Amino acid sequence: MSPARAANTVTQHETHPEIALGGVWHVVVLNDPVNLMSYVVAVFRRVLGFDETTARKHMLEVHEQGRSVVWSGLRERAEHYAFMLQQWHLTTVLESDETH
Hints:
Blueprint: H1 3-8, H2 17-22, E1 24-30, H3 37-48, H4 52-65, E2 67-73, H5 75-87, E3 92-97
Antiparallel strand pairs: 1-2, 1-3
């Protein structure tokens, strides 16, 4: 390829600057001995907009595995969800996704 032609060639790369700048964050709900399973399901439905099946799936992960990643995305939104879940007295932490 000639240098003149190479200068006119545009390489397209799919980029996501918002993810590149902020990274991907996970909202993780941890098991606790206080909240009833039905309460956790209700909170997931209300705060995260989960349907009954999805809410129960995540509640069971929390109960059986001690944790469940309930949402992943940009940090600002992750902080919002973590704060809201904490307001409902669920033990919630944020974790950075080091793979992105």
